[in-house]
Amino acid sequence: MSNLGNHFNDEAEKFDKTVHITIPRYEEMTDVLISCIPYDNEDIKVLDLGCGTGNITMKVLERFPNAHVTCLDISENMLGLAKRKLASYDSIEYVLGDFTIIDIIDSYDVIISSLALHHITTDEAKLDMYQHIYDALNEGGVFYNADVVKSNSEYLEQLNESVFMEFMKSNGLSQDEIDAHKQKRHANDFPITLTKHIQLMQKVGFTDAEVIWKYCSNAIYGASK
């Protein structure tokens, strides 16, 4: 397993306990992400890339109970938690794999992701990922991503990070805990600017890519095919 897979196996049990005290407006962000899906209560096929503990898939199925969801994640422990959380649903397929190298062999109406794609290390690998996503979408299908992004400005980058640090401090984290969290982010995160994301998506064929929501260094963007 890759170092990233090992990292998330270690982090799996902590994720749901810490996400709301380390990521500002997490619920707002994920609610907006689900609201972007332009379907009624239809029998849609959804791919959740980097599904983690299943938070996004749960919100998808709460809104679209007839949906069929494929949950893909690199961490066996994360998938195990997702399976337990989503045990009452029988329309989910769980796939253990690295979404940066695994072939997406099926086709989907919706491909969705949250706090995962920024772990892709290079622009070339990100471009390849967008090509796989585009190719795996049905005509008229949509891709939306809620993720960490980099600012175009070094000043704003520092400002955004200070907001995150103050948010964690306000939720009772010690300075040592904040520093440890910051160190893990810098070791495992490879964000790029929203401008760059849009450019990469346009290169693979998306024509209506746009930003839907942003707060500090978290944003939602996407497009239809």
Q: What do you see in this structure?
A:
- With 225 residues, the protein is of the alpha/beta class.
- 47% of the residues lie in helices and 21% in strands.
- Helix 1 packs across helix 4.
- The two termini are 33 Å apart.
Defining key terms:
47% helix; 21% strand; seven-stranded mixed β-sheet; single chain; alpha/beta; Rossmann fold; 225 residues
Give the helices and strands, then pairings.
Blueprint (H helix, E strand, L loop, with lengths): L2 H20 L3 H10 L9 E5 L5 H9 L4 E6 L2 H10 L6 E5 L11 E7 L8 H14 E12 L5 H17 L4 H14 L5 H11 L5 E6 L2 E7 L1
Parallel strand pairs: 1-2, 1-4, 2-3, 4-5
Antiparallel strand pairs: 5-7, 6-7
CATH fold-level label = Rossmann fold
Specify the biggest β-sheet: 7 strands, mixed
Q: Radius of gyration, rounded?
A: 17 Å
Number of strands: 7
Number of domains: 1
Order of helices and strands: HHEHEHEEHEHHHEE
Anisotropy-based shape: globular
Task: Return residue spans where pLDDT drops below 50 for at least 5 consecutive residues.
Answer: none
- CATH class group: Alpha Beta
CATH architecture classification name: 3-Layer(aba) Sandwich
Distance between the termini: 33 Å
The percent range for strand residues is: 15-25%
